[in-house]
Design brief:
Blueprint lengths: L8 H8 L6 E4 L6 H9 L5 E6 L2 H10 L6 E5 L5 H8 L5 E7 L4 H5 L25 H7 L2 H12 L4 H14 L5 H11 L10 H12 L2 H15 E11 L2 H14 L20 E8 L3 H6 L7 E7 L3
Parallel strand pairs: 1-2, 1-4, 2-3, 4-5
Antiparallel strand pairs: 5-7, 6-7
Bound molecules: S-adenosylmethionine.
Length: 309
């Protein structure tokens, strides 16, 4: 089994300001690199709620923390963070929440999950394999224009039109059910240029984002995180591409200033006041971290603090 090296581990711990008696949420457990660092700083009265929408991650977490009563591991999406938190009945609001977005190394490296075009496997790509449509199911039913839009919007791929047409042509003769079939189809439509990324890179990213509704989930997760954060609680979000980072940056900026509809009024009503304070600037991994862990290269960490109500 592949491990997952946590990205920006020191910076995340600094951002969360873990206190021994605090209650924390790792909303993207993965293989628990960040969780383990948080738990190390907890005292006997501290709590960590670890979540993941991938059952394999949850099982890994449950077996690792089975004997630690401070850690609760839940299967679920951070788009349901508020409900999960309320169901658990933790006696306080959260002092820190981490969202480390995207996919983990074990997901990418297991051909059976269908995330990677470099190894052949079923064209699945669901993070939560217990529900929803696989990438292969979607490619059977989607229209050419839907495929084009997904590739353009989520892959920011200038060849979206050509690739969508090639996919629709290919599926007239055989269903695209394997990662290799899709990668070959894309490579035939857009010849690879030396020194450039494989042409399927952006297409796989786009379909993965779509199949998992990653951007919609992120928007809900951010809203809900703010609701369950205690005063002075910290929100840390690591994104891996510009579509995610744009959403995070705008969300934090908008919540860190008064609602513009009330700008200029002598008194801002309570519901229109800022709820967050930005902490520092965006943090990126050092060259040394990227050398050790190349998957960290596109990471951006943003941190904000909940203001008192
Ligand atoms: C980059 S990995 C996290 C790695 C983790 N921090 C570690 O140190 O091992 C992202 C994880 O988030 C999970 N994930 C992605 N979107 C999610 C969502 N909406 N809700 C819950 N988990 C999600 C993925 O299944 C994956 O396991």
């Amino acid at each position: 089994m592949t491990a997952h090296s946590p990205v920006l581990p020191v910076e995340v711990l600094d951002g969360l300001v873990v206190r021994p008696g605090g209650a924390y949420v790792d909303a993207t457990y993965g293989r628990g690199g960040h969780s383990a660092a948080i738990v190390e700083r907890l005292g006997s009265g501290g709590r960590l709620v670890a979540m993941d929408r991938d059952m394999e991650a949850v099982e890994a977490g449950r077996s690792r923390w089975a004997n630690d009563p401070r850690v609760i591991v839940r299967h679920g999406s951070f788009a349901e963070l508020e409900r999960t938190w309320n169901e658990l009945g933790v006696a306080q609001n959260a002092n820190g929440i981490l969202l480390d977005l995207g996919v983990s190394s074990p997901q990418l490296d297991d051909p059976e999950r269908g995330f990677s075009f470099s190894k052949d496997g079923p064209l699945d790509m669901r993070m939560d394999a217990s529900t929803g449509m696989t990438a292969a199911d979607w490619l059977v039913t989607a229209s050419e224009s839907e495929i084009r839009q997904v590739i353009r919007r989520y892959g920011e791929d200038p060849n979206a039109r050509r690739i969508a047409r090639a996919i629709v042509r290919a599926r007239e003769t055989h269903a695209l059910t394997r990662t290799r079939q899709l990668a070959d189809c894309v490579a035939a439509a857009v010849p690879r240029r030396p020194g450039r990324l494989h042409p399927a890179t952006r297409v796989f990213q786009a379909i993965r984002i779509f199949v998992n509704d990653e951007l919609g989930q992120l928007r809900s997760g951010l809203e809900q995180a703010v609701k369950i954060l205690a005063s002075q609680g910290r929100l840390c979000v690591i994104s891996f591409h510009s579509l995610e980072d744009r959403i995070v940056k705008r969300f934090l900026r908008d919540r860190a200033r008064p609602d513009p509809a009330f700008a200029g009024l002598p008194e801002i009503p309570v519901h229109a006041r800022p709820v967050l304070k930005l902490i520092g600037k965006a943090v990126r991994p050092s060259a040394a971290e990227i050398d050790l862990n190349p998957r960290s290269r596109s990471a951006v960490l943003r941190v904000a603090e909940r203001l008192g109500q």
